[in-house]
């Protein structure tokens, strides 16, 4: 595992002397420098992503369509260039993943259908309580709801709605690309897969602190409330980031984390307080408990790597000297 000591961060394979010859065959600089390069690369990506949101000067709030369109442009440019950071990291460290860059970042066809469906199903099971709550509070019945969902006119309206496009398409795609597909391959050889699951979301959580700037600027609440809300959002996004990092590693695909991210953006944080005061509180709370229970029960089976084929990050770690990563089996 990575350790911060007198020699700085140390590469995963250093703790296994018997595999040093294999790690040395990778070429490149010393292991301590490799890890510092990885951390600096991830930090640079996070700063670039957030910074791209503020290259446009505007007095309008972040939800204004004009602001959203401008930010679409800058964030898509940064996200499109982010794989170059992984390429530069590979050249600087000398680590050879053993697969193509696109495959390493989760763009591959092998196992794509289960990778798209099973993580989303697992996430919907976790949100069983909130989905029940949404259905109880919805004035229309199931048949009417399906008609609305399947109607081409509804989708056409969504595709012209800047808020919908940001929350359901652009944000999930670009954030998962930058904070999972690009960062995890750089962090995994340094920390190992387990620690990377919890390290990578820290960059993701901190990146959401920029909302404080806009809330203070437009005085949307008291200073104390704004910082309390930011701390809560950091915690929530860090936990969510760990979950999607886990999905990315276990499936070897980007599509699952993107779809789960989009779904969670739509659902928002579960309204537990509203559920406690709901007229049908008992069945609703039972749905919450059942959803969490089933999620924990199905987490390992539905993310079994055997369902998704060869995992690129596991191949990368094998070449870095770690063939016993627990998340790979």
* Share of residues in helices: over 70%
Main sheet summary: 2 strands, antiparallel
- Cα shape: globular
Strand content: under 5%
Class from secondary-structure proportions:
mainly alpha
Rg to the nearest angstrom? Answer: 21 Å
Widest sheet, order of strands:
1-2
Q: Whole-number average pLDDT?
A: 84
> Termini, distance in Å?
19 Å
| H-E string | EEHHHHHHHHHHHHHHHH
Q: How many DSSP H or I helices?
A: 16
Model regions low in confidence, pLDDT < 50 over at least 5 residues: 1-27
Number of strands: 2
Short description:
By secondary structure, the protein is mostly helical. It has 16 helices and 2 strands. The chain has a two-stranded antiparallel sheet.
Can you give a write-up of this model?
Keywords: Endoplasmic reticulum, Hydrolase, Membrane, Protease, Transmembrane, Transmembrane helix. By secondary structure, this protein is mainly α. Helix content is 71%, strand content 1%. It has 16 helices and two strands. The protein has a two-stranded antiparallel sheet. A hairpin with a 2-residue loop joins β1 (4-5) and β2. The two termini are 19 Å apart.
Keywords, separated by commas or semicolons:
329 residues; mainly alpha; 16 helices; 2 strands; disordered N terminus; protease; Rce1
Write the layout of secondary structure elements.
Blueprint: E1 4-5, E2 8-9, H1 20-24, H2 31-52, H3 65-93, H4 101-104, H5 112-126, H6 128-137, H7 142-150, H8 152-159, H9 162-191, H10 193-207, H11 211-217, H12 223-251, H13 255-267, H14 272-276, H15 281-302, H16 312-320
Antiparallel strand pairs: 1-2
Helix pairs in contact: 2-3, 2-9, 2-10, 3-9, 5-13, 5-15, 6-15, 9-10, 9-12, 9-13, 9-16, 10-12, 11-12, 12-13
